[in-house]
């Protein structure tokens, strides 16, 4: 019996889809069987980032409406022999095409066959969000070191905490820009975690390669030397319950500044 | 039967007191009241205090009593005093006297309400609201919106370990934390907001609270 994890943020553009793609890939690299679900019906992206866009035949709406079997709609990522699958969102309809009950049923079914089901949540707190969290056991909130993103994360955390079936959410701080944080122009990791006061699952550095590799359809996490990839890999190991010491704020900072220095000294 | 016992008018040092008997029937009382009121040899307009004793008068009863009294051009009721209240009113009063405690973080978009005082143990994040009929005490950071004395209590205060609210409201006064106020609370630690004599919301050190609002203390023990 697998576990369903929803990846959400409230605000758009903080990297939910990128995080979903990279964590899914990282978990598959660790030998787990992973199914990614894109619930952003009408604005699907996860397929593009994974480079699976042109292999979609059926989608989420086809499955819940019974036009096909689940396994027909799942797109296999051939790079990870039978370990990474994507259930793409429909592009031609909108969020109301699916109900939370249907999502719950679908995810319960998928949990039989997969170790991890990662649900990529759309931005906002409306229907799409309600669908995405319906079947989840755990939640990951993604934010960036911007006040607007942290505000929205706070709202989402409040909503998630009131859901009885979901464990207390964990936090990923994405797109950390070293120089801005050092100069105090951006919120630092410590400030964000004390403000939101939930467990920090990990931090991911801002890196140009995240964008270029997404455009190529190869999640950045496949490149083990990339600093952002290290962040994603650490998070994946923590999801697996491995005892990678949860990057405390200090080690997080020094580790990351150290890395930064070594990058410059290269 | 000696009449004129059900309604008595007395002069006290606080003014005229109209005392209504609480044992007779209500209709009898009204009848006699009417007589008494018309028969007063008063001139001009006198203010009276109405004492209803142990008779419970609901809104309707009170209306009929007042209308009878106001039939006379010479009497105006300044105050109504009763020795009884309904269980419901009593419970409402008790609730308003009580302080409620909320433990946890009040997050963006969430609202925590209390009829009486409200104690929050945790932070109040931006865009979160805490509303109380009485005062609000926060063991944590107030970074959102706080409304004390929501039913019009001007004596209510907002105290926080860290007072950094975006909006402060006390009774019907509202204050956004503009530059001046932010400067006033440059050290937002251990502060309280209250309505100043000038009618505006002011911020002062928590230590000043015992001088500003001595009435808030309910401590009865000896020292």
UniProtKB/TrEMBL annotation, chain A:
Residue span, CobQ/CobB/MinD/ParA nucleotide binding domain: 5-220
Q: Does the keyword Cell cycle apply?
A: yes
Note the Pfam families from the entry.
CbiA
Q: Where is the signal peptide?
A: none
Name the domain of life: Bacteria
- Which key words tag this protein in UniProt? ATP-binding, Cell cycle, Cell division, Nucleotide-binding, Septation
Q: Which GO terms describe its biological process?
A: division septum assembly; negative regulation of cell division
Looking up SUPFAM superfamilies in the UniProt record yields: P-loop containing nucleoside triphosphate hydrolases
Q: Which GO terms describe its cellular component?
A: cytoplasmic side of plasma membrane; cytosol
InterPro entries, alphabetized: CobQ/CobB/MinD/ParA_Nub-bd_dom, MinD, MinD_FleN, P-loop_NTPase, ParA/MinD_ATPase
Binding residues for ATP:
11-18
Q: Which GO terms describe its molecular function?
A: ATP binding; ATP hydrolysis activity
Question: What is this protein for, i.e. what is its function?
Answer: ATPase required for the correct placement of the division site. Cell division inhibitors MinC and MinD act in concert to form an inhibitor capable of blocking formation of the polar Z ring septums. Rapidly oscillates between the poles of the cell to destabilize FtsZ filaments that have formed before they mature into polar Z rings.
Protein family (similarity comment): Belongs to the ParA family. MinD subfamily.
Q: Which PANTHER family match?
A: SEPTUM SITE-DETERMINING PROTEIN MIND HOMOLOG, CHLOROPLASTIC, SEPTUM SITE-DETERMINING PROTEIN MIND HOMOLOG, CHLOROPLASTIC-RELATED
Instruction: Please report the name of this protein according to its UniProt entry.
Output: Septum site-determining protein MinD
Taxonomic source organism:
Sporosarcina newyorkensis
UniProtKB/TrEMBL annotation, chain B:
- Gene3D superfamilies annotated for this entry? 2.160.20.70, 3.30.160.540
Q: Which residues cross the membrane?
A: none
Query: Cell division: is it a keyword of this entry?
Result: yes
Q: Is the keyword Ribosomal protein in the record?
A: no
User: So which domain of life are we looking at?
Assistant: Bacteria
Q: Which Pfam families match?
A: MinC_C, MinC_N_1
* Residue stretches making up the Septum site-determining protein MinC N-terminal domain: 7-80
UniProt keyword terms in alphabetical order = Cell cycle, Cell division, Septation
Give all residue intervals belonging to the Septum formation inhibitor MinC C-terminal domain. Answer: 105-203
Q: Which GO terms describe its biological process?
A: cell morphogenesis; division septum assembly; regulation of cell septum assembly
Q: Which residues form a coiled coil?
A: none
Describe its assembly.
Answer: Interacts with MinD and FtsZ.
Q: Its family?
A: Belongs to the MinC family.
Q: What does this protein do?
A: Cell division inhibitor that blocks the formation of polar Z ring septums. Rapidly oscillates between the poles of the cell to destabilize FtsZ filaments that have formed before they mature into polar Z rings. Prevents FtsZ polymerization.
Query: HAMAP family, from UniProt?
Result: MinC (MF_00267)
> What's the name of the protein?
Probable septum site-determining protein MinC
